[in-house]
Design a protein that fits this description.
globular
Length: 140
């Protein structure tokens, strides 16, 4: 598979993984946190709920960055994924949901997308390289 096709496939895979993890995390919060489920329709989230939402977002961004790197076989693709996630999220947050959350929430969420995706991809690439390289034998 050529590099462009592999990178494109990795970005699709990363986006899909991010959506699946976000949906799973939100469903788990609704199922196991009754106050969260009650707050969701009006988005009247407590501070703890907002932090939990940010944590789920960070987790899905990091895992998506790792998946993107694995599929692309190139950690740089994860930085591109972060840019895509930001490009998708920015108009949603600025135009549709800005009034639903405090400003700090949007700043934190939008601010971590690129660095978390990129750094997770970099970490995955380094981990993959370490596993591929033969380790020197130590004899005693």
């Amino acid at each position: 598979m050529n590099r462009i096709v592999r990178t494109a496939a990795s970005l699709v895979a990363g986006c899909l993984v991010a959506v699946v993890i976000a949906q799973t995390g939100n469903a788990a919060a609704r199922s196991f946190w009754p106050d969260y489920a009650a707050a969701e329709p009006t988005k009247a989230y407590s501070l703890a709920m907002l932090v939990a939402r940010l944590a789920v977002g960070a987790l899905c961004t990091a895992v998506a960055g790792c998946v993107t790197t694995i599929v692309a076989r190139d950690g740089r693709a994860a930085w591109l994924l972060g840019g895509i996630l930001l490009a998708i999220s920015l108009p949603i947050h600025l135009l549709r949901v800005w009034a639903d959350y405090p400003a700090w929430y949007h700043i934190v969420y939008l601010g971590y997308l690129v660095p978390i995706a990129g750094l997770a991809g970099l970490a995955m690439q380094r981990l993959s390289l370490r596993q591929v390289r033969p380790q020197p034998r130590v004899t005693h």
